[in-house]
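Justification of computing resources. Each target in the renewal requires a structure prediction run like the one illustrated here; the chain below, 255 residues long, is used simply to show the kind of job we budget for.
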Amino acid sequence: MATGDGNAATAAAGGVAPAAFRRVLVKLSGEALMGPRAGGLDPATVERIAHDLSAVIASGREVCCVVGGGNIFRGVSAAAESIDRATADSMGMLATVMNALALQSTLERLGVTTRVQSGLRMDAVCEPFIRRRAIRHMEKGRLVIFAAGTGSPFFTTDTAAALRASEMRCDALLKATKVDGVYSADPHKDAAAERYDRLSYQDVLTRDLRVMDATAVSLARENRIPILVLSILTPGGLARVLDGRGCCTIITGDG
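Resulting C-alpha cells:
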C-alpha cells in the first residue's frame, strides 16, 4: 500500500476524485465533540467543527451527518457492567440526539440552516427520519443531522452512517477521526505504525483494521460508497479533502 501525504494524485488515478463528490455524509464520533475535555461537549470544539461543515456547504455540496454519543454515554460499556444491552443502546441513542441538537444550534448560529432527524421518534425536539424529506432538505441547501443511530439496538453509529449514506445516495462517506487516515496500528501507541493512502473494503475486513465495524464496511461496499478517513482535528480539513488537497485514506473497491 502507498503511504504519505499526496492523496490527490492517488485518488484521481484510482478513479475516485473527491472534488467530484456532490453529496456527502460526514460521520462524527461523540468523542470528537469533547475537545480537550474528559467527557461532555466542548463549545469551542463544536464551533470549530460547525465552521468546517459550513465551509463544505458553502462549496455547493449537499451535506448530511451522523453523530455518535460516546462523549455522553457508551452503550456497549454500560451493557458490560450491569445494564441490559438493548436498554443501554437505547440510552446511547438518546445521547446522540443531545449531540445533534447541540451541533444544530451552533450551525444555525453560523447561518447554516439545519435539520435534525431522529431514528427514534421525539417530535417535540426534532423530525422523525423520513428519507425523502431528508433528501429534499439537502436539495434545498440544508444540512441534515441524523441522530439516534439506526433507531434499533445492537447497531453502531458507524453502521448507521453507512446505512444513511446508502439511503441518501451519497457519493462518499467521510469518517472524521482523531488521526489523518488508517494505520496498521494505533499511531499514538506505536511509532512504527504504517499509514495507508488507499485500501480496499476487503483489506479493511480481512486485516481487521477497525476503521469502522464490519457491518458498516460491508454496507458501503455493497452500495459502492467510498469511505474517506480523515482527521477532524485539523481546521478546514473536511473542505480540503473534498477539494482533493487534504490528507486522508480512501477505501474503495480496489486496493
